[in-house]
Amino acid sequence: MSEILCEWLNEEVKLSRSVVPGSFAEEFSTGYLLGELLHKYGLQDDFNQFSQSRVASAKLNNFSRLEPTLHLLGVQFNENVAQDIMTGQHGAATKLLYELYIALEKKRKAKLTGVAMEAMRPAATAKLKSIESVLYRERLKTLTPRQADLQLQQISDHFEIKSKAVEDKIARIHIAEQQKVQKLQEEQRAQDIEKHRIGRRRQNEIMARIQAAIIQIPKPPPSHTIKAIEAKRLLKKKREAEDTYKNIKKFEKSLAGNASAVHSQVTGSNIKESLQTQKLQETAQEITAQTATELLGIYSDDDYIRKIQKRLEEDMFAREQREKRRRKMLMAQLIAHEAEEEAYREEQLIYRLMRQSQQERRIAVQLMHVRHEKEVLRQNRIFREKQYEERRLKEFQEALDREAALAKQEKIDYEEQIIKERECREKIAIERAQARYKKHYSICWEVMNQIIDLSTKVGEYRLLTNNRIPLKLMLDWKEIFFNGKPMYEQASIQPLPNEPNPEQLVELNKMNLLDEKDYGEYKSMTGEWCPTEENSENKPPLNNNILGHVLRRLMEIFYPPKPKSSLPLFPPFPIKGCILGKLFSGKTTCAKFIEKVCNIQVLSVDTLVQEAIQAFLKNEVKSEHNVILQEAESSGEKNEVQKNLSKSPPKVLNKLQTETSTNGTKGNCPVKKDPSGQEFISDSSQDGLSKLSVRAQLGAASQKLLKKGKSIPDELLIDILMEAINQTPPEKGWIVDGFPMTINQAKLFEKAYIGIDPETKDANSGKLSLVTDPRAPNKPPVTSPAFDVSVLLDISDTAVLKRLANLKSSKSKSSQTEQENNNKNSDAEILEEKIDLARDQVLHRISSFLDTWPKLEKWFSVHQSTLVKVNAETEESLVCETVKEIIMEEIAKNQNRKGSAQEISSGKKLLPVTRQDLLPPIPVAPLPIDPGSDEWIYVDEPLPKEIPDFLVPYWEMVEHAYMNTIKTILRCLRDEQHSVIYYIADIRKKFQDYLKHPDHKQEFVSQWQSDYNSIADDLREDEETKAELHQRVTDLRDLLWDICDNRREEAEQERTDIMNDGWLLDHRGIAMNHFFSLMQVEVDRFQDTKRLLHDYYRAMEGKIPTDDIQDFTRIPLLDIFDVEQKEEQNKSRRIPLVSWKLPSPEINITKSKSKGTLQKSAKDENSENGVATLGKDENLITDTWQTAVTAVSNMVTAEIQSKEMEEEKEHQQLELKEDLKSSRTLSGKAAGKDAKDTKKLSPKSATKKKGPPSTASVVEVSPAPITPEELKKRKLTLKIKQEYFSALKHEEVATKSRLELIKEKALAFVEDLTMKAEEAYKDMEKWLGSRFLAEMSSVEKLIEVARHHIESSSKIQYEITLEEADFFISSDVKVIPDPVLSPHVPHIETSGSGTLTISQLTTLHKQFLQVAPKGI
User: Fold this and answer.
1) Is pLDDT at 903 greater than 70 in this prediction?
2) Angle, alpha carbons 491-493-495 (nearest 5°)
C-alpha cells in the first residue's frame, strides 16, 4: 500500500518533495503537502496561503483550510484525525492518503471540477458543513497546543535530558566510588586474612616446639588387667571373623544367584571348613547329574555335555582359589588388628605416665597464647579505630554533601512551587478580570438593549401619535427603564394567571411597578395628579395628626411592641480599632508595634480562642470579684457595669450545662466511688461549669466543636472577643488583629457591642400607610460605630507571594543554623508551622479575601466611615509609623469629643440658675391650642379590649381596599390611554388605506388611447376628425370627474361612519366611570374613617358604639349598555346608573334626501353632537362631584347634630337627677308613708311638668355642688368632642380637595380625548380634500397631453398611466410598433490614385502567403 501511494505521489502527482514509505508521518504532519496534492487536482484555490513551517500556528492554518475541501470530497476528516496527523501518529497520514487516493480517482473519472462539486451539493448540507467547519476550527484550536507551549515543552524536555545525564553521571561517579571503597575493603580483608594466617602459622610453630619438648615415657600396664585385655582381644577377633564370613557369604550369593541363603557360623577350625566344601561339591554333582539326566532325553550331543563338565570344573577351581584368598585376607586383618591394639595399649600407658607434666606445659602454652592474643587484639583494635575514624569522616562528608544537594534541590523545588503558585494566582486574577468583564459586558448589553427597546418604543409611538407622545407614557417608560424591566410585553397576563410562568411574572412586576408609581403620584398629588396652575391653591392635604395618633395607639395595643434588650455598657476606651488586610500584609507586625509603643491592647481571635481552651483545660474558676458581683445580683442590688462584667453568653453556656449534665462523668469533673462500688459525682463537680469562668466556658464550647472537626461559629467568636474586651482595662484601648473577616462577623460584632441590630426594623412602621403620627417615637439615636478606625493594609497578590518566599528562605536558613547550634525554639517551630500552613492555603485565603472584601469595604467606608487605607508594600518601619500616626490621631479626636461633651453637660447644668427663676412669674393668658397641634395633649383614656380587636383589622381592611381599588382604577385609566392611542392611529391608517383603494380610471384611459391610435394617419389632419377627437377627450374628462366625485363621496361616507361608530362616546363614558369610581373610593374612605373615629371616641367615653343608621353613599355611574340590556341588569344592580347617550343621528335622516344634503347634515349634526356631548359630560362630572362633596358635608353636619342632640339629652338627664336629689333632701325630714309616696310621685310629676316646676325648683332650691369627678368627666367629654370634630373636619377638607382634583383630571381627560378624536377627524377631512384636488389636477394634465397630441396629429406612442392621484407617460411600454427601416446598402470602396482598398489588400496578403508561407 505504501509503495503504491509513493508511486502515485512521486510519479503521477509529482509533489514538490519526494516521499518514501517510512516518511509519511513526518512529511504530511504540516499539511502543506496535502494542500499541494489538492491544489494539483484543482480543489485547493487558497494554496498560496499555506505554510511549510512546522510551528503550531502554521499547522493550524493549513489543516483549517484543508477541512472544507476534504469534506467536499467525502473524506472522513475531523479534529481528531488532524491532531493525529500533526502529532505524527503511526498510520494516520497513510489512511488519509489512501482515502484521498480513492476519492481523487473517482473525481478524475467523473471529470468534475471543484466548482461543479460545490454546486452539486445541496444548500442545506452546505450550510450545515459551514457550521461544522466553524466548530472544527474552534475545536482544533483547543486541541492544538500553542507554539510557545511546544517550545516550553521542548526546553523542559531538553533540561530533563540534561538532568538525567547529570544524574547518570552522578550515579556512575557514585558507583565508581562504591567500587573503590569495596576494593579497599577487599584489600583490607586480604591483609587481615594474611595477618591471621601468619599468626596461625606462628601459633602452630609454637605448638610444634612445645610438642617436641614433651618427653614420652611409656607406662607399663598393670598386672591385674592383662587377662581382661586378652579376653577383649579374642572377642574382637571373633567379631571381625564373623563379619568377614558374612561379607564372603553375601559375595557368593550374588555370584551364584541363588535365592536361598545359607546361614551358618564359622568356628575357626579347619574341620568345619572341609565339611562345608564337601557339601558344596556333593550338591554340585547332584545338580550336574540331574541336568545330565534331564538333557539326555532331549539331546544326545556329547560335545555339549563335555563343555558343561569342563565349565563345572572351572567353577570348582575358581571357588577353591577364592576361598584361599579369603582366608589369607582374614589373617592379614587379624594381624593388623592386633598391631593396632598393641599400639593403643602403649599410648594409654604413655598417656598415663606423662599426664601431669603435660598439664603443666599446657598451662604455660596457654599463657603464652593468651599473651599473644592480647597483643593481636590490641593491634586489631588500633587498626579498627583508625578505620572507624576514616569511615566517620567519610560519612560526615557524605552527609554534608547530601544535605547540600537536598537543600539545593529543595530550593529548586520551592522556586518551581512559587512559580506555579504565581501562575495559578495570575490565572485566578485573569479569571476574576474575565468575570468582571463579563459582568460589565452583560450589564452594558442589558442597558443597551433597554435603550434600544426604549428608542424603538418611542419611535413606534411617535408614528402612532403623530410625533406627540403623552408625558405620562414617557414617565412610565422611564420608570420601567430605570428599574431594569423589559420595555415590550413578554407574555399576556389577560386574564391574570393562577400559576404564572417567568415571562408572566415579569409582566406582573411591571404592572405592579407602574401601579405603585401611579398610586404614589395620586397620594402625594404630584406628577400627573399635580393640580393645574389655575387651581394651584389646591395643595396636598396635610396629615391628620389626630387620626394618626388614634391609629398608632390602636396598633400599639393590638400589636404590642417587643421588649428591647438592654444596651451593653462598656467603659469609654481611648481607641477602638481593627487592622485588616491580606495574608502576610503585616497586620500582626503593626499590631505588636502599636502595642509596644502606644500601650494599646491587641486582641487576636486565634490567640483568644487558644487562651479560652487553655483556661478550660486548666479549670479556670471565676474570680472573687465576679462571685461577689453574682451574689449582689441575686440579692437584687444590680448594677449595669457589674452586669456587663459578669455577663456570659446564655446560649453557649446553657448548651454546655445541658451537655455536661448528660455526660457528667466525662470531662474534668472528679468522680468518687462509695464502698459499694457505685460511682457518683462529687458535690464540687455538680456545678463545675457554673463555677468556671466565662472564658473557660467559651473555651469548652470551642474545644468540643474543634474535636468534632467543625469550625467555630461567628457567634461564639464574637462572645470570646466580647469577653476579652470586658477584661481590657478602661485606660487602655484595644485593636483587633485581622477581624472581622466577613460581613456577617462585622454585623454581629456591631450588634453585640452597640446593642442595636442595624438590620432590624420597626414592626408597626409599615402598617400605617395613609396617615402618620408625628409624635411617634423616632428611630433610636445614631450611635457611634463599634470601631473608631479601621485600617486596611493594602498589598498586591504578587507582594504576598514574594513575602511568603522570603519567609520560607529565612526559615530554611534559621533551621540550618539551629541544626548546627543544636538549639531549638518553640516560637520558631510555631512560625514554621504557620508558614507551612499559609503556604498551602495562600491562594485560597487570598481568593476568599478578595471575595469578602467588597462587602466589608462598603460596610466600613459607607455605613461607618471609618476605613483608612495604608500602602503596605513599603518598608516595615514606614508602614508601622503610618499606622501609629492614624491611631494617635484617632485617640486625639476621641479626647476632643469627650472634652466638648463635658463642656456641654456643664453648660446645661448651669443653665437652670437664671434671673428669671428668682423673679415672680407674670400671669399670661394662654392661647387656645388647636387639636392635633404639637402642644395639644391627646385623650388617652383606657379602651375596652374588644375595640382594638375590632377597629385595627377593620382599618387594615379599609387601607387595603383603598389602595388596591385606586391602583386598579389607575391601571384601567392607563390601559384606556393606550387604547385611545391605538384606536386613533388605527382609524388614521385605515382611512389612508381606504383613500388609496384602486379605481377604474386607467381602463377608460387605455381604451381611449387605443381608439385614438387606431385612427389612420391621413385622417388626423382633417378638421372634422380633430373636432371629433376633442369631443371624445371632453367625454373622457367628464367620465373621470364623475369617478373622482364618487370616490370623494364614498370617502366622506367612510369618515362619517367612523365618526358615528360610537367609540368616542363609549370610551368617554368608561373614562368618566373610572373617575367616578375614584370619587366613590374617596367617599368610602371618609365614611370608614368617620365610623372608626366615632367608635373609638365613644368607647373612650365609656359608651357602647352604635350602628350607623345612615347607609353608605353611592355615586351613580354612567350606563353605557344598550337599551335592550338595561331591563335584564336592573335586577342585579347595586350601583345606580345614569343614562347619558344621545339618540343616533341616523334615525332623523330620511332616505329621500340627496347626497349633498346628506353630507352637509351629517357634518353639522356631528359637530353639534360633539359640542353637546362634551358639554353634557362636563355637566355630568360637575354634578357628580357636587353630589360627592355634598354627601361628605352632610355626613359631617349630621354627625355634629347627632352629637349635639346626644349632649342635650345627657344634659336633661343630669338636670333631672339634680332635681331628684334636691327633692329628696327637702322631704327627708318627713316620716313613714308620706316620704315613700313622695318618692314614688316625684318622678312622675317631674316628667309630666317639665317647664315651670323645674324653674321653680331651681329658684327655690340651691343647685347641688359639682363633684370633681363630674367636672373632670365634663372636661374629658369636651376635649373628646373637640378632637373628634377637628379630625372629622380635617378629613372633610382632605376628601374635598381630592374630589376637586379628581374632577379637574376627569374634565381634562375627557377634553383631551375629545380633542384627539376631533383632530383625527379633521386630518381625515384634510386628507380627503387634498386627495380629491390631486386627482382632479392629474385628470387636467391628462386632458392637456391628449389635446396636444390631437393638435400635432401624432400618435401617442407610449402608454398613458393614471394611477390614483398620479399621471405619467411610461417610456418603458410602447403601444404601437416602431416603423420598419429601409435596408442598408453596403458602401463600395473605390481605389484612388496610389491607394488600395481593403479587399485588394486582403487578396495581396493571400498571394504573399502562398508564395512564402514563413516569410523567408
Assistant:
1) no
2) 145
Amino acid at position 1000, single letter? H
pLDDT tens per residue across span 506-536: 888 888 888 888 888 888 888 888 887 766 5
Closest CA relative to residue 1196, chosen from 1184, 1186, 1204: 1204
649's grid cell: 453568653
Residue 709 confidence (pLDDT): 85
State which H helix or E strand residue 133 sits in: helix 123-143
In Å, how far are 630, 846, 1099, 1221, 1262 from 1268, measured between CA atoms?
51, 78, 22, 18, 18
Phi, psi of 1323 (to 5 degrees): -60, -40
The DSSP code for 488 is S
* Alpha-helical runs (H) found in 622-713: 624-635, 640-645, 650-662, 683-686, 688-691, 694-707
Which of 130-139, 269-278, 361-370, 1385-1394 bottoms out in mean pLDDT, i.e. has the lowest?
269-278
pLDDT in tens, 740-799: 889 888 888 888 888 776 665 555 555 566 777 666 655 555 567 888 888 988 888 788
Strand, helix or coil for residue 1368? strand
Q: Rounded to whole angstroms, what are the CA distances from 1122 to 738, 1125, 1129, 1287?
A: 80, 6, 11, 45
Local structure of residue 621 (DSSP, 8 states): B
Distance of CA 881 to CAs 151, 576, 734, 888, Å? 49, 18, 18, 10
CB 594 within 8 Å of CB 801: no
Contacts of 1044 (CB under 8 A, 6+ apart): 1332, 1335, 1336, 1339
What percentage of the chain carries pLDDT values higher than 90? Answer: 6
Nearest-CA neighbor of 788 among 510, 975, 577, 625? 577
CA atoms of 919 and 379, how far apart (whole Å): 127
Which of 662, 652, 654, 736 has its CA nearest to residue 702? Answer: 652
Q: Omega into 495 within 30° of 0, i.e. cis?
A: yes
Q: What is the pLDDT of residue 175?
A: 92
Q: Could you count the other beta carbons within 10 Å of the beta carbon of residue 1144?
A: 11
- As to burial, measured by CB atoms within 10 angstroms (0-12 exposed, 13-18 middle, 19+ buried), residue 484 is exposed
Instruction: Determine the 3-state secondary structure of 197 from DSSP.
Output: helix
Report d(CA 547, CA 543) in Å as an integer.
9
pLDDT at 379: 92
Sequence-ordered list of residues with C-beta below 8 angstroms from that of 1267, at least 6 positions apart, any chain? none
Question: For the segment 1260-1306, what is each residue's pLDDT rounded down to a tens digit?
Answer: 334 445 677 777 777 888 888 888 888 888 888 889 888 898 988 88
Q: Which residues partner with 1361 through β-bridges?
A: 1368
Whether residue 740 is preceded by a cis peptide bond, meaning omega within 30 degrees of 0, is yes
pLDDT at 133 over 80: no
Q: What is the pLDDT of residues 1159-1212, one digit of tens each?
A: 444 444 454 455 556 677 788 888 888 888 888 888 888 888 887 887 788 777
Q: What's the whole-number mean pLDDT along residues 260-286?
A: 47
| Helix 502-524 / helix 471-482 crossing angle, nearest 10 deg | 120
Q: CB of 621 within 8 A of CB of 691?
A: yes
In this structure, what are the phi and psi dihedrals at residue 1369, rounded to the nearest 5 degrees?
-105, 120
d(CA 166, CA 409): 14
Report whether pLDDT(370) > 60.
Answer: yes
The helix-helix angle for 797-821 and 826-858 (nearest 10°) equals 170
What's the distance, CA 477 to chain centroid?
31
Q: How far apart are alpha carbons 1009 and 1013 in whole angstroms?
A: 6
Phi, psi of 792 (to 5 degrees): -105, 120
State the alpha helices, DSSP H only, in 911-945.
915-918
Which pLDDT score, from 0 to 100, does residue 1269 have? Answer: 76
